Amino acid sequence: MPLYSKVYSVPYILIFSVLFLLSIKFGCKNNKINLEMQFLQERISFFILFVFLGLRGFIQSDWRSYYDAFLKAPTFFDGNERMNYFVNKGAYSDWEKGFLLLYIICKSMVSEWCFFQAFSFVFDFVIAFHFIRSFVPKHKVMGICFYFVCGALLYDVNLMRNSKSIMLFCLSLKFITSKKFIPYLLLNLLGMLFHASAVVFIPLYFILGCKPSKKLMLFIFILGNTIYILQIHWVQSILGLSAGIIGGRLGVITIGYLSNVKWTTGYGISIGYLERILTFLLAIHFMDRLLQKQRENNVILNLVFIYIFSTLFLSEMSILTDRIGPLFLFSYWVFYPQIYEFLNKEKKIMFLMIFFAYSVMKILSGYGMLPCLYDNLLVQKYSVQERKIWLNRFYTFLMKGE
Prior knowledge:
By secondary structure, this protein is mainly alpha-helical. It is built from 22 helices and no strands.
């Protein structure tokens, strides 16, 4: 098996293409038929994603640690001693306790990995769909398309712990506009039990509800682009000084990341960079209409800006952009379908063409690697051992830089 091949990305492109076709609305004068068609399209989309992602085989990379941890997880029937050891002293005791408890609960119900994986997907999708429906009730399947390209392939596959905290953050957003800090705080504290990164969501309560200033956003955007294009290494300097002051395990980890060329290499001018420029310009152009349409769009616009700014200001270290950026990428699920609503017929066609072409290029560039070779548990073609061998081959190749 070759380490790289565009053929590996074909199943992902096919699934996206089907979802894309389902998102296109074919007008009918009968509103009842339109609603029935929309309902059917939504259910078909869920079924497709459930089979493709919920019942996926051992694809990408992080499945290895998640799968091995699941095999070692006890059940309620194994007694308190084994459960306590697994959560507090075992090989995965440094993982967040909420996620480890989720392992125990699911394994106590059905002791098969496929059940846990399917449950994890359904949990994420139900909350994501609720979030999409609250902002774009007329274009939910389009929101699902953006969910697939800008989230699901990352959250539900490689970031199973992060995804739970991100979904809980999605649920908490409604409490920002209603100014209810306690439920917002509780949901994100719960999110921290699945991934510690949820801590960054808590102070955002005091920022996301504010109306963004166009002048301020433009100033930050220009500054971020200056840092990005000139590749000014300000983050590494600060982290290097901080590591010496902090010391201990955190200091060692920080130095380890800074000394690894793989993590400290920035991103140059790319299609992704151009996409974020376009997204920013659209956000500025449609800001007033978005705010008039729905008060909660304050939150969405701020999330879009935070995502873009994080990729610009932290671009010198890919490890930071890869870890922090995805925390806010879910804003695209409802931002772009709303932009689509504002367009006339001709511009909507252009929007769909650009969205389809960009998504296909994104999938081609991101899923043409051997670990991404698709497999499904219903018709599993490749064994766990085969996938582990491929994964080792791939990462050995990357480390050697050949």
